[in-house]
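Researcher: Here's my situation. A collaborator sent me these components and asked whether they could plausibly form a single complex. I don't have experimental data yet, so a predicted model of the whole assembly would be a useful starting point for our discussion.
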Amino acid sequence: MTISSTTAGSSSGAVHGAPAGESIRDTLAAHVSPDDRLALLRNMILCRVLERACCELNPRWFPAEGEEATIVGTFYGLRPDDVIAAHYRGPFIAYAMRGAELGRLVGQALGKANGYAKGRALGFTGPVELNIVPWVAGDLGTSLGVATGAALGLQYEGGDRVAVVSFGDGTSNRGDFHEAVNLAAVWKLPIVYVCQHNQYSISLHASQVLACGSIAARAAGYGIPGVSVDGNDVRAVHAVVQEAIGRARAGEGPTLIEACTYRLGGHWASDPGGYRSPEEENEWRRRDPLPGYERQLLAEGLVDQPALARLWDEVRAQVAAAVAEAQAAPPADEADLGLDEVFAGESALANGCK
Amino acid sequence: MPPRRLTFVEALVEGMRGEMRRDPDVFLMGQDVGVMGGAMGGSKGLYDEFGPRRVRETPISESAMVGAAVGAALTGKRPIVEVSFGEFLPTCMNQIVLQAANLHYMTAGKASVPMVLRTRVGDGPYRGHPQCFEAWFTHVPGLKVVMPSTPADGLGMMVAAIRDPNPVLFFEHMYLYHAIRGDVPDGDHATPLGKVFVRREGTDVTVAATGWMVHKALAAAELLGGEGVSVEVIDVACLAPLDFDTIAASIRKTSRLIVAHEAWKVGGLGAEIAAEAAERCFFDLDAPVVRVGAPQTPLPLAKPLRDRFLPGTHDILSAIRTVLTT
């Protein structure tokens, strides 16, 4: 468990993976209720089973295994009227927690007609009507700008809605990251930037492309709080993100969070890898956040082994049903090419992120 | 009440002012748009009337600014984002062509992006930042691209662009800013997008032009009128979607077509119009289509080179004589 903060003007970079006191963990864990702890577990299991299924069905899918604590911890507990933009690796659980239908999401991974976008968007897009910034761009980084703009829209209308956007450590090297975070800092926009730091930009280790070591340390350059958190500790991620959301709702502006985790799979499902050592992979497999969290909850007495087994069975059945629904759906229909649906008509503003 | 006579830039500001008064969701953001009143007076008076919430100064971060407009539009706001000069558009290309253009179609109609991106192009009085990149964006489905040439259209198309539920790229030619003054209608006036306008009727040859070149074409038509040559001038004020039907109707009347723009000839809007003419009007044409545009060099800065580079009235005159003698 590590949480270290960098505040404006501080040059102290966060140290990844360093042991931290149990007291910090306990303090944070105390903020997460027993019901939430169990829900976090269920969602982590769902994320794993769902993403594994997508990887088995689509060799070009982007595996999220190992990053479930970061993803679930970040996007759990948001309000329906908040706006999210989830990183492309493992976004379905973020959408599902907002009410997206699993069968339709899996259908997108398979290019089926039952998805949310008639087969027109990237497979990992989400339904905009659930206040999800959809994936319509094949580049990385522009979603940071759009999410920042959504936060501007939320600030402009008043109220206390916030935006939460996640992105990879690789994306943090895009100029779009710098521009967006600086703009949000200057305007004190209600947004939380969460770097899903899995240590790899496809084949390149972060040490090859990041001289400063810590992405959270960059926050000092924008004059905003920066927090580095153990991305394999779902409660720690959740607590840190919720704290940042509280600041955003209170009008105190953005926070940059770095959740340090590891991509246990390849960049894509059939990625042969070979660019990192078995020792490194084994070490992080040992730190797999899901069994680690199960052990915690077992130790805390929140679940027992039979309950845990039932939970896995339920989730597997849920995903199997979603896969069956997606497989039964017809492929995306060429009639939906939509030559006359490129432009919005005059009445089109009823939708979007509302 | 007599019609108001405004300069081109006054008309643009008037269009924004009216919409900002009418709709509280409309706001403007860009560099120097506030207290300074915008580059070349492009937002003069708006900050005083609407304040810093609705006239927002931005850092020099075009990609974030345009992204902010896309995101705010996604939440139902009506942002106008100003990229000071069209030469800076390459810095925010991703947001324009990957996000703004795609969102409506790729959400199967569930989202729309009602934003205006305004920017200044062309050889203006200060001669800075003149490059014209507007044709790039006509290649991208999902974007509306406009370049008005009169104060009335500057106002009316600004109003229409702000009300449009789609991303509109609004190209403002800098020469026209202070040089052109004209009547603008009172009240709630929107010029429809997706149309081209016949500015001068004629029977011998059609010149379809954009921006400042419309005025150069009108000057050429006036000169040739004295020689008994009747030139029809079409203002391609909306580059995308392109109203080729109006151009085709003109070709059927004159049987000759010239296309003229300040941007480079190669791969320009004129090439697209010429190709449409070849596909749809081949048997209506009595002469090959002639394109007038800038030569294929980077835009030079020194005055003699610039003057040689810029297409002018003489180029249009020369093109007209060519098609009339073919």
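Model: Some features of this prediction you could bring to your collaborator: Chain B touches chain A through 47 residues (CB under 8 Å). The first strand of chain B starts at residue 4 and ends at 7.
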